[in-house]
Q: What sequence folds into this?
């Protein structure tokens, strides 16, 4: 397994946020994690990224233990819920930020950034500042900035939560395209049922700090806890003639 | 609903711009010998005299140097304090302590500096008690000295608290903490986060205020009056000295310096602040 999380726990003061959580994920696959606000999704991602320290348990990436490693050493990128861009850098500067940190040659940075701008469908926007972009454009830049560094693992924390329906759908398609092109391994956290089903190769449900991973999507659809069945019943009731 | 902005503009013109322009025109006419008690008719001789003496250029460079060093030291100290004591500054006691020096007038700060920094002052006596110097006379000249050390230190005393508050607010408002976490996640080390994220964001959001403070210190009067030396003098002190001299025939020279100073600052400010804000496309 490429990613293995074993018996991970984290408390803040007396609140147990992540409770002996275990998961595993193969390379080049995306695991969707569905969960309500406050269920511990963000904390789980931050623990894996090294932005929080676990109370117990271990995280392994490609056979390498991550505890004690700084976020930079882990080569795991955590993508925020919001389109958080560096306000002092242009679109080009934002996308190339990680490559600059890796001391990649400027000519190569320019080449890779141009290619990424094209893939993100942001042609002609490269020299704009973040405040000149729309929400969807900012989120695309944020994506490109994370993916261009070729992270071992990408952690997406409700990345489309603030977007309108149309933009959200386009971003979901774009992410799937980019994930295929760059061979991304990722954890995709969302509270949106449809998004969780659409985005993940594998799917899990997080509740009160614990994670249940389903062997296939059919199991997920049939489990009453996921809310899929009640959702289907709701839409079916609308189609009934006596409604 | 155009009446409000129009009224505001009129108000600004009448109370803000008109008196300033009128004063500038009066000073220009005085400097050209057109108005004034002993006016002898239009002439550029006063301008020629001022520029030939070199005192204006010397005073301008001296003022710019002291104001520049004052702002640079204040900004550096404020960065150290605001970043180093980020959590502590949220406590009421520390924030009050930082606000306190902002309430000290320039004249009071100058006399405070004399009490602290002069040869007979607090630090001199402490140094002697500690055995670092044998007599008070050995304490370095920091008041009315040729390097303007007393002036610079007093500038730092009154300016740096403002920048501490400013940097702390910008740090919070621009979400530098989250951006730093993001940079760590993208592979940055601590020093890279500071130089490539924290510092550029703080500077890009406050550079205009730094320039305004530079202009403010360039024209400061009380502190260089009390703590400065005879020559060179900072601009405002020089202007007042020229305007109040015995020989009434030489008063236009004071106006020459005032007009030249105002024009240089106004043009520089226009050049610095002319860049328009970028538009947001949502």
A:
């Amino acid at each position: 397994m490429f990613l293995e999380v074993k018996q991970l726990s984290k408390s803040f003061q007396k609140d147990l946020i992540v409770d002996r959580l275990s998961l595993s994920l193969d390379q080049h696959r995306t695991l969707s994690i569905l969960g309500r606000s406050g269920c511990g999704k963000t904390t789980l991602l931050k623990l894996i990224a090294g932005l929080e320290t676990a109370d117990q348990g271990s995280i392994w990436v490609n056979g390498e233990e991550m505890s004690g490693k700084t976020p930079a050493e882990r080569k795991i990128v955590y993508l925020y819920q919001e389109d958080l861009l560096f306000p002092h850098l242009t679109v080009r500067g934002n996308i190339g930020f990680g490559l600059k940190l890796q001391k990649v040659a400027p000519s190569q940075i320019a080449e890779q950034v141009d290619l990424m701008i094209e893939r993100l469908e942001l042609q002609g926007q490269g020299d704009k500042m973040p405040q000149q972009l729309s929400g969807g454009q900012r989120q695309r830049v944020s994506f490109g900035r994370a993916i261009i560094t070729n992270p071992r693992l990408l952690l997406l924390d409700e990345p489309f939560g603030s977007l309108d329906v149309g933009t959200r759908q386009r971003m979901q398609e774009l992410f799937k395209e980019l994930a295929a092109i760059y061979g991304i391994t990722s954890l995709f956290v969302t509270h949106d049922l449809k998004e969780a089903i659409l985005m993940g190769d594998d799917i899990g449900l997080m509740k009160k700090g614990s994670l249940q991973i389903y062997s296939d999507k059919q199991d997920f659809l049939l489990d009453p806890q996921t809310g899929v069945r009640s959702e289907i019943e709701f839409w079916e009731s609308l189609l009934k003639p006596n409604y | 609903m155009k009446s409000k902005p129009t009224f505001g503009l009129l108000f600004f013109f009448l109370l803000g711009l008109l008196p300033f322009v009128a004063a500038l025109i009066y000073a220009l006419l005085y400097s050209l010998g057109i108005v004034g008690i002993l006016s002898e008719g239009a002439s550029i001789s006063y301008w020629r005299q001022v520029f030939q003496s070199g005192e204006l250029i010397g005073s301008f460079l001296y003022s710019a140097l002291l104001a520049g060093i004052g702002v640079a030291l204040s900004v550096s100290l404020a960065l150290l304090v605001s970043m180093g004591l980020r959590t502590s500054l949220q406590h009421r006691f520390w924030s009050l302590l930082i606000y306190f020096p902002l309430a000290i007038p320039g004249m009071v700060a100058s006399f405070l500096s004399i009490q602290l920094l002069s040869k007979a002052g607090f630090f001199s006596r402490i140094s002697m008690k500690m055995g670092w110097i044998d007599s008070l006379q050995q304490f370095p000249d920091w008041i009315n000295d040729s390097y303007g050390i007393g002036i610079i230190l007093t500038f730092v005393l009154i300016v740096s608290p403002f920048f501490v508050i400013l940097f702390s607010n910008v740090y919070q408002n621009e979400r530098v903490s989250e951006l730093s976490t993001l940079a760590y996640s993208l592979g940055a080390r601590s020093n890279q986060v500071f130089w490539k994220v924290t510092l550029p964001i703080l500077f890009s959001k406050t550079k205009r205020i730094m320039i305004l403070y530079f202009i403010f210190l360039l024209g400061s009067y009380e502190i260089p009056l009390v703590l400065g030396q005879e020559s060179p003098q900072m601009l405002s002190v020089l202007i007042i000295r020229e305007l109040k001299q015995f020989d009434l025939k030489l008063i236009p020279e004071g106006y020459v310096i005032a007009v030249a100073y105002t024009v240089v600052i106004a043009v520089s400010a226009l050049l610095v602040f002319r860049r328009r804000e970028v538009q947001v496309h949502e």
